[in-house]
Amino acid sequence: MGVEIKVDGLTKSFGKQVIWGDVSLTIPAGEICVMLGPSGTGKSVFLKTLIGLLKPDKGSIVIEGTDIATCSERQLYEIRKLFGVLFQDGAMFGSMNLYDNVAFPLREHTRKSESEVRDVVMEKMELVGLVGAEDKLPGEISGGMRKRAGLARALVLDPEIVLFDEPDSGLDPVRTSFLNQLIVDLNAQIDATFLIVTHDINTARTVPDNIGLLFHRHLAMFGPREMLLSSEEPVVRQFLNAQRIGPIGMSEEKDADELEAEKDQELPALPPIPLQLEPSNGVARRSQRPPGEWCREHGVTPPPGSFEENMSMATGA
Known about the structure:
By secondary structure, the chain is of the alpha/beta class. It is built from 12 helices and 12 strands. The longest helix is centred in the middle third of the chain and has 18 residues, at 173-190.
């Protein structure tokens, strides 16, 4: 069972440069959340702050009753045991084979015997589909396999929170699709809290239970997937639907002249909200909601064609 992460009034800056300020959100226990934002908006900084690698200027991050923004190093060490992290490039030790890479946290942080270590390592490698590749070096395998090996290593201590820093970075669309399915299947199996930082819009539209968007040094919105995918808020609408019209420009924000030139242009229609990706076995995850439930509960009419054939049933139409 995952644990809740409650963030309140979080602010982080480097020198005079404010990265983001007054960020408040609650990442629900056991759910999959995605954090989006244009390049340079501090998504990876947010992950590093959540795990205590960076200290915020203000605000709190409460996990299991402990505020990791102000706790002692000893308390932080204990809280970090709840985390597993998949880094952008997998962060494999190049001189170690995959088995030893995955075994590394167990050998460093537990007193398990080598036979116990082997049982855990092989279990996690089987979860990510790498059984048979344990003797290969990171340089001998594809980027997708390195990501899966990094994920196996992130899981060996049975974390209750798993952070994914751009897991699709460097992967082609097909391998990104396989990785997305793996993430959903893992969440169904281990019921941990997942937070994914990504630029991939298809991932954001189909995988998570909740979506957040960082923009212009603040959290523009955070909430259930259907809330953001049906939102008319300009920056949310533009980013989640990969549109050119809106406040985001090549240098993050558009200037006043660009916005003035766009004001009479008709916005493209919101695309249909896709069905959320389900586990491979077809059994819904604990946190997965029926298609259209949020829209129905809040009186929101989703874009035409949303949820395919399930939409009429889900909305009661």
